[in-house]
Amino acid sequence: MACFHRLALRYTTLLLSFMTILLLFTQNSPLVESDDPFDDLIFQPTCSCRTCVMGFLDDDWFIYRYNPTIPALLNRKNSKLHKNTYKWWRGLQPSRLRVNYTEVVDQLFSLFPDEDHYSDAGPDRCRTCAVVGNSANLLRSNYGPLIDYHDIVIRINKGPTQGFEKDVGTKTTHRILYPESAVDLENSTHLVLFPFKIRDMQWLISTFTTRHITRTYIRVKSSIIANENKVMILHPEFIKYAYDKWMQNHGRYPSTGFITVLLALHICDQVNVFGFGASSTGTWHHYFDKTRTHFKGGPHGGDFENVTLHKLQHRNKITMYKGF
Ligand SMILES: *[C@@H]1O[C@H](CO)[C@@H](O)[C@H](O)[C@H]1NC(C)=O
Ligand SMILES: *[C@@H]1O[C@H](CO)[C@@H](O)[C@H](O)[C@H]1NC(C)=O
Ligand SMILES: *[C@@H]1O[C@H](CO)[C@@H](O)[C@H](O)[C@H]1NC(C)=O
């Protein structure tokens, strides 16, 4: 704009024609190569998709919240927790059991892949992700082929594909689970544990080894079928980040669905969201059963999550498919 003013002043005396101003506007447009190195930084594509999560870094609202240095998935090397994260995390679903976190992490990565997952972002990558929630608005949506077209398809908890292929697709590259929502997985699917407590990590170890853990705060499956070489674990630091930065500490902790969308924003270049929200008739239940789901109830700040997801959509960071 400063440049525009300077040039505009110089030109007004000469020739204040509509065409000149139009031309100057074109030169200042972000779509045209600019000589200003700062502009180059802002408008450099960060991925090779048509739009990128990290696309235009000129969005203060997004930049304030989005921290690409927060680890999304746990490994041995990044496993150390900040003291206050540890304290907060241990308070989410408290238990009197005394457990040594370091030892649990050690056991986890002697069983499961100890990798630096998805650290391959760059201008040549275009990873598209579909986050598939469990809302009844998927029924009669015919989204199946569209969902399957994504590189990564993340499903949440029990959300099945069998019998619902037309509306939800057939592909599941990742399934978000915790002990209380556990189901069997296909061999090609990544199990992604969301640990809301240290017991969840112990349960994961137990299901692939001794199978001795049969309860958390309720009775849980002591074993599941899943590919042990594809297990991933959400970083507890990421849950705290979702709560502090994205929820602005509304509710007690963020919902699984909300964290999953944020996870996708961190490991994907383009994020499309399906099966969130109410159905067209205003009911809140799963597409696969009649279980009522909560919007404002429970420990999660449903209103705030909803507003934040809509803001992400408005800023072209996600696209929400509303279904039927
Ligand atoms: C947890 O275990 C590690 C390794 O076995 C040990 O060095 C550490 O002192 C233990 N921490 C606590 C609080 O017991
Ligand atoms: C599952 O995939 C792994 C490779 O990740 C393979 O070693 C294993 O045999 C497969 N198991 C089944 C039941 O197909
Ligand atoms: C979610 O937020 C959007 C936009 O702010 C609003 O239009 C919609 O009614 C909200 N949904 C619910 C269930 O409150």
TrEMBL record:
It is a single-pass type II membrane protein. Residues 1-34 form the signal peptide. GO terms for biological process: lipid metabolic process; sialylation. It comes from the Eukaryota. Pfam families: Glyco_transf_29. InterPro entries: Beta-gal_alpha2-3_sialyltrans (IPR051757), Glyco_trans_29 (IPR001675), GT29-like_sf (IPR038578), Sialyl_trans (IPR012163). It is found in: Golgi apparatus, Golgi stack membrane; Secreted. One of its GO terms (cellular component) is Golgi cisterna membrane. Disulfide bonds join 129-268. CDD domains: GT29_ST3GAL1_2. It is an enzyme of class 2 (transferase). GO terms for molecular function: beta-D-galactosyl-(1->3)-N-acetyl-beta-D-galactosaminide alpha-2,3- sialyltransferase; beta-galactoside (CMP) alpha-2,3-sialyltransferase activity. Pathway: Protein modification; protein glycosylation; Glycolipid biosynthesis. Substrate binds at residues 93, 134, 157, 217, 253, 257, 277, 286, 300. Keywords: Disulfide bond, Glycoprotein, Glycosyltransferase, Golgi apparatus, Lipid metabolism, Membrane, Secreted, Signal, Signal-anchor, Transferase, Transmembrane, Transmembrane helix. Belongs to the glycosyltransferase 29 family. Homodimer; disulfide-linked. Homodimer formation occurs in the endoplasmic reticulum. This is CMP-N-acetylneuraminate-beta-galactosamide-alpha-2,3-sialyltransferase 1. It comes from Danionella cerebrum.
